[in-house]
């Protein structure tokens, strides 16, 4: 059984499927029950596969296959601080909790230990692709990229740029130094090589947000972006009132529009991943659409840290054709589970629905329904995220030609600690819904990236 998204509104559920993965980890064929005989011998012959070279894995009862999760916004150095500072406003939380914590990554041994745990922890939870912010430190960021590659996690990894509004012990020494270390990290990450995995890890430009960047730094990063048109860019965008006020005070010339600000410095385009986007004017919505930017929706952190306490208008993004994915945010918030992010996206959408109902006078005056369905949040966690990260040609679903990043989900096995309660008569649709709403990492039996098993028993 295979379940994947074809689009935001189309979930494909195939009860009997055969997915053929080649030596490079690419999907060579995806057949449903009507296209192949159950006889493996005949299938091999029909597909011209040699018997010696072909291993066959059959799923056990209660199991099904889904694409790996894509976490579009994740601060790796916040792995050890998850859950701390709940309810705080963003700038206070950065000063009190985050900067002292991230400063510890100056110590490369500490970085290696925490990042190893982080990458293992996310892979264990089915995150086959993550877009990571590193700390400000070049060496620790290179270690993070190396660990992603050696452990088999597809990743975007960026050295975080900060030259101001951060304590002296935790910021780049100068704009020149910030840019120099950034270019060094980009070159290092591009040079990484692995015997099994190809092009798994790539660099991403990571200005933390405008508040922490001098104008010359944003200019310099824009220049790197111009010279590297394929390089993705990530930053925080319209997260909370406190952050938006501070941004406006530092950059009054943009009249409070972060879209105009980042676009001015050449940092907005089809490769931009904008985290949060909670408060969006009509003008900014349109700018993101025109510029083909992607949104990393982080409902868990939006509702618990940062002071937004308001989640992004995801329905409106989808309606306008703006790319959207989900992010755990890791330290912002408390959960590193994409299943939680999916469920919180649903809850946040229900809250928006309630607000929109109470604000509108009449049925006709009401905006588009805000609520997100299970199918939609699953799309955001997989194919939507792949689009946001510029990886839709590689991952996100099981289209032929993509790479096999997949999870085998088990829904039975109390002895393995699985607590989803499925019953004999449940349809695959029902089993899937129960997994999304009540499952956890114990249901994620095996994790594959580029066709290789990276977590779970062979
Ligand atoms: N804005 C700037 N830095 C951060 C961060 O680390 N987390 C969140 N949630 N917002 C930010
Ligand atoms: Fe963040």
Structural category is alpha/beta
CATH level-4 homologous superfamily of the largest domain: Metal-dependent hydrolases
CATH class division of the largest domain:
Alpha Beta
Q: Extract low-pLDDT stretches.
A: none
CATH topology of the largest domain: TIM Barrel
Helix content: 25-40%
Describe the sheet with the most strands.
4 strands, antiparallel
Globular, elongated, flat, extended or rod-shaped: what is the shape?
A: globular
Query: What percentage of the residues does DSSP assign to strands (E)?
Result: 15-25%
- Mean model confidence by pLDDT: 94
CATH architecture of the largest domain: Alpha-Beta Barrel
| Strand segment count | 18
From the alpha-carbon coordinates, what is the Rg to the nearest angstrom? 22 Å
Question: N-to-C terminal Cα separation, in Å?
Answer: 19 Å
Bound molecules: guanine, fe (iii) ion
């Amino acid at each position: 059984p295979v379940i994947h998204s074809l689009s935001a509104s189309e979930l494909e559920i195939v009860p009997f499927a055969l997915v053929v993965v080649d030596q490079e980890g690419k999907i060579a064929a995806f057949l449903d029950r009507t296209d192949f005989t159950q006889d493996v011998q005949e299938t091999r012959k029909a597909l011209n596969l040699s018997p010696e070279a072909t291993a066959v894995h059959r799923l056990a009862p209660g199991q099904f296959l889904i694409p790996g999760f894509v976490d579009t916004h994740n601060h790796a150095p916040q792995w050890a601080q998850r859950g701390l500072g709940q309810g705080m406003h963003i700038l206070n939380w950065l000063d009190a909790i985050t900067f002292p914590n991230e400063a510890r990554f100056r110590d490369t041994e500490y970085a290696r230990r925490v990042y190893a745990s982080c990458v293992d922890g996310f892979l264990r939870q089915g995150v086959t692709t993550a877009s990571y912010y590193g700390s400000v430190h070049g060496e620790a960021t290179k270690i993070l990229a190396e660990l992603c590659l050696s452990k088999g996690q597809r990743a975007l990894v960026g050295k975080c740029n900060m030259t101001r509004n951060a304590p002296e012990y935790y910021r780049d020494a100068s704009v020149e130094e910030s840019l120099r270390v950034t270019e060094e990290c980009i070159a290092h990450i591009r040079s990484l090589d692995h015997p099994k995995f190809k092009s798994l890890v790539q660099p991403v430009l990571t200005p933390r947000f405008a508040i922490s960047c001098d104008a010359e730094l944003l200019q310099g990063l824009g220049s790197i972006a111009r010279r590297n048109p394929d390089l993705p860019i990530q930053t925080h965008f319209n997260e909370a009132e406190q952050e938006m006020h501070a941004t406006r005070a530092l950059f009054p010339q943009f009249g409070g529009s972060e879209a105009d600000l980042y676009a001015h410095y050449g940092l907005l385009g089809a490769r931009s991943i904008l985290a949060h986007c909670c408060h969006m004017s009509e003008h900014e919505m349109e700018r993101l659409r025109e510029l083909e930017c992607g949104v990393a929706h982080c409902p868990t952190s939006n509702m618990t840290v940062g002071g937004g306490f308001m989640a992004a208008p995801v329905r409106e993004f989808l309606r306008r054709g703006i790319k959207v994915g989900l992010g755990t945010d890791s330290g912002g918030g408390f959960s590193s589970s994409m299943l939680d992010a999916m469920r919180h996206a649903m809850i946040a959408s229900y809250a928006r629905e309630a607000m929109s109902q109470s604000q509108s006078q009449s049925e006709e005056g009401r905006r588009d329904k805000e609520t997100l369905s299970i199918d939609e949040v699953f799309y955001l966690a997989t194919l939507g995220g792949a689009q946001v990260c510029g990886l839709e040609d590689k991952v996100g679903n099981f289209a032929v030609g993509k790479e096999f990043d997949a999870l085998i989900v088990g829904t039975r096995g109390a002895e393995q600690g699985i607590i989803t309660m499925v019953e004999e008569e449940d349809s695959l649709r029902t089993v899937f819904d129960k997994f999304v709403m009540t499952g956890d990492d114990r249901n994620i039996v095996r994790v594959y990236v580029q066709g290789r098993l990276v977590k779970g028993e062979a």
